[in-house]
Structure formats: structure tokens, C-alpha cells
Design goal:
This protein has one domain: Gcn5-related N-acetyltransferase (GNAT) (Aminopeptidase), CATH 3.40.630.30. It has five helices and nine strands. It has a six-stranded antiparallel sheet, sandwiched between helices. A three-stranded antiparallel sheet has the order 6-8-7. Helix 1 packs across helix 2.
Amino acid sequence: MIETSRLILRQWRDTDYLPFAEMSANPEVMRYFPKVLTRAESDAYIDKLKAIIEKQGWGFWAVELKQTQQLIGLVGLHDQPTQFSFSPCVEIGWRLDQPFWGKGYAKEAANAALDFAFDQLKLEKVVSFTTLDNKKSQKVMEKIKMRKITEFQHPVLDIYHPLSWHVLYEISKQEFKGQNCCYSFI
């Protein structure tokens, strides 16, 4: 579990399934993903995320507001050993429910995940990527001091798919070290 001033990044719970399914069925939340998820697909995704965290101790964590214990989405790290031309790598990613956009939660949780990546996992760099049109996620990447590296065609999407082209960002351990951190690992 990782704690920030307003958030807790933690393992998934049974009570997270319904709110995450509702979030994953929202076309605005899923705008830059290939499709909205059915309830079964959303539940299976949480099951997969839980198993990864149980096995390696980290992954895409559930994010809750400390004040209300409400699930607001996911933020975390994901190993990408072979899928991309820039693999092996560890990516940082996030998906927050729409009512929680624009409040600084993605940046706060992402910085905590980066601190974990560099301090606990001893990684030398972390990448992030999104579709070319996803300016909000790119803004988060820039706010956490990631640098734009290149554009690429996502290998699992058809070249003509509207979400096919992505932008790649990265941050090194040295680049992140200069930032203040105020996170605790529980």
C-alpha cells in the first residue's frame, strides 16, 4: 500500500468491482481505449490486476480517496517485457473516474508510483504512452516531468484504427530524484 496526502494506492477489494465496472462502461472515461468494458470484462481485468499484485507486489493499484475510502480509479506500474519496440520496460499508467478529473489526483498518485518504482524496485527509467489525441494524459505525463520521446503505432491495433498512433514519454531515476516526495509505503 502506498499513501499520499489525499490518496491510498492499494490491492483491489471485492467492493471495487461494481464502481470500477461503472467507470469502465463510461464512454468518456474509455474514450482513448479500444472499447468500453462489459461487467464481465471489467471483473476479469480486476482479477488479472489482483493476481499480478499478489505475485510481484506491485502493478496497477486501486486508488481510493483517504477522506471517503471511495474508489476513484487505478494508477500504477505494469511490466512490458516484449510487446513494444522499446521493450523491455515498465510503464506507468492511470485511469480515473470522470468526477475526479482535474483535481490533481492522477499527478499525485503517479508521482507516488514513480517514487515506488525508483526507490523500491530500483528501476532506472519508467515509460508512459497514450494515443496522440489524449492530451489530458499527456499533460499528466508532463506534470510528472516525463519527456516526450517519439510517436509509434501500437502493435495490437490495426494501423487504420483511430487509436493506433501513440506517443511515448519516459523519465529516468536521475530526472525524478530532484523532485520532492512525500509518500509512505505501508
